[in-house]
């Protein structure tokens, strides 16, 4: 699954620079995560960095975007140009 940011977001700006894929950006009211770019940090880190730094715990899994770890790794490879 990709991650999402809920409306509990306080716009603290700490998540955006932590995303290695550039999936987080400022939306109209709160930060948003582009599911096409979110790999949950698979391929980069052991844990999702945005979740680690979020002070209000507002970054859950996006139930509308279900992906396996293998699919996330494939997305990582596609985004970074890394070959298996």
From TrEMBL:
Keyword Repeat in record: yes
Keyword list, A-Z: 4Fe-4S, Electron transport, Iron, Iron-sulfur, Metal-binding, Repeat, Transport
SUPFAM superfamilies per UniProt: 4Fe-4S ferredoxins
GO cellular component: cytoplasm
Pfam family for this entry, one: Fer4_7
Entry's transmembrane regions: none
GO molecular function: 4 iron, 4 sulfur cluster binding; metal ion binding
InterPro entries, alphabetized: 4Fe4S_Fe-S-bd, 4Fe4S_Fe_S_CS, PSI_iron-sulfur_center, YfhL-like
Residue ranges annotated for the 4Fe-4S ferredoxin-type domain, each copy included: 1-29, 31-64
Name of the featured protein: 4Fe-4S binding protein
UniProt source species: Thiogranum longum
